[in-house]
């Protein structure tokens, strides 16, 4: 599960550019290397609509994206994507996208049992929350951007989450300002040291 967040836990903010305008060479190079790890990306309908439109826009001559942003977005065309939705219909326009209309938790559990290779979420806050709550997340990775978007922040990430213990297994600073934190998550039935209710 991969998320980018502001320091105060928002996925985006009104009026702010993508990556809060703080994408930089080290971070973008890391994203490029991550993209070469042959993940299957898991996403919900809203993220599919947003990201497929951005990828199509990035492929145009006057996209408005920087060269690096455009390459990152159009590069997603080549990677396998599984889209969980009851509202979308096949065929999906974004290359290498497969639609799953059933229960996402059951489908991902089966994909893990079948040994489909490494998977990662792409945005998709509701899907990520469901997979975490079901105990299907092996790694919980955050890239924290050094901004507080208390007035303009949108999409609070942790609302609706279960209680989760996190064991840190890695960290890194990109470009002297972005912080990557990687954890192994354990969903808790109750706070540590208390009896289940």
TrEMBL record:
Boundaries of every Bacterial bifunctional deaminase-reductase C-terminal domain copy: 2-179
InterPro entries: DHFR-like_dom_sf, RibDG_C
Protein name: Dihydrofolate reductase
Organism lineage string: Bacteria, Bacillati, Actinomycetota, Actinomycetes, Micrococcales
